[in-house]
Design brief:
This protein is mainly alpha-helical. It has 12 helices and 2 strands; from the N terminus they run H-H-E-E-H-H-H-H-H-H-H-H-H-H. Helix 3 packs parallel to helix 6, helix 3 crosses helix 9 and helix 6 runs antiparallel to helix 9.
Length: about 300
């Protein structure tokens, strides 16, 4: 190609990339605008304090109650339970792949983890309902058919590949001199992993964990099928609960009359969910920035 054609080609590519970027940003702005407007309309009918601090969530029954705390606690049960399962397991898997596994073993385990990430969430939901819940009830007979523990376990399995993959990338990005220095001092592989690699990559591990938690907060179908649709203020994972995303699915079925307070709850809950994930992403971005400034 001539110099002029190369310039035209580069300019065209830049315009295409700019257009794609603007479309992505525009979609985000439109979503934020819709959530903001509809949430504002909702808070014209329901006080913000009643929404944020109320302990009863009954938007469809009389007398109506719009306290979102039951949905928040249900979401927390899923997020905390799945994190307890996935975070230690993901870090251990990443450490094994990075430090102990041979290239042949790594080529086998990595694709298997990617398969877990590619399974549809509705399949995970039915897996929880038909396998995990009966298994739990064998040991804890008082467990309800729909329960938070089953949902937390299956979401933990879902986010495990994300944590292990991101932590593996974090470990691989560290300078090899760190590990070599540890081994030169006579440290064993476990000591190198626990006292050198993990502390050095702690910011990136934290960012990976926050990203996985955001994924767990936004999970819908699996928790809808496994955890149920009972909005109650409880911290007992053996009971039926409802998460914020599961409630949005309930409203989106089309049985709610458009325009009323019950209909607008969908946007208020979605707005709160957006705000939570947005704040988590800010924290994750800050951790990644700190890790880059620290040289890792």
């Amino acid at each position: 190609m001539t110099t002029d054609r190369l310039k035209i080609y580069d300019y065209s590519i830049a315009l295409v990339l700019l257009a794609i970027t603007l479309i992505s940003v525009s979609v985000t702005i439109v979503i934020m605008g819709i959530l903001g407007i509809e949430s504002y309309n909702f808070f014209q009918l329901v006080p913000v304090t009643d929404f944020l601090f109320g302990t009863q969530w009954e938007p469809f029954l009389e007398p109506k109650s719009f306290g979102v705390l039951p949905l928040i606690t249900g979401t927390l049960i899923i997020v905390i339970g799945s994190s307890i399962i996935a975070i230690p397991s993901g870090i251990v898997i990443a450490a094994y792949l990075n430090e102990y596994a041979s290239k042949k073993t790594r080529k086998i385990i990595k694709p298997l983890l990617e398969i877990l990430a590619g399974i549809p969430t509705v399949v995970y939901g039915y897996f929880a309902l038909t396998f995990i819940t009966p298994l739990i009830r064998n040991f804890l007979p008082d467990t309800q058919v729909f329960n938070g523990l089953s949902g937390a376990i299956v979401v933990g399995i879902m986010i495990l590949p994300m944590i292990s993959s991101l932590c593996d990338d974090a470990f691989s990005s560290l300078p090899s001199s760190l590990k070599q220095g540890g081994y030169a001092l006579g440290a064993m592989p476990f000591e190198v992993v626990s006292q050198v690699i993990i502390p050095a990559a702690k910011n990136r591990i934290g960012a990976s964990v926050i990203l996985a938690m955001s994924r767990a907060i936004g999970e819908t179908m699996a928790v809808t099928l496994a955890a149920g649709a009972t909005a109650k203020l409880t911290l007992n994972p053996l009971e039926s609960i409802q998460t914020m995303t599961a409630f949005i699915v309930q409203v989106s079925l089309g049985d709610t009359q458009q325009g009323g307070a019950a209909y607008l709850t969908c946007f208020s809950v979605a707005g709160l969910l957006f705000l939570i994930t947005f704040l988590l992403n800010i924290v994750g971005h800050k951790l990644m920035t700190q890790s880059k400034h620290g040289g890792f």
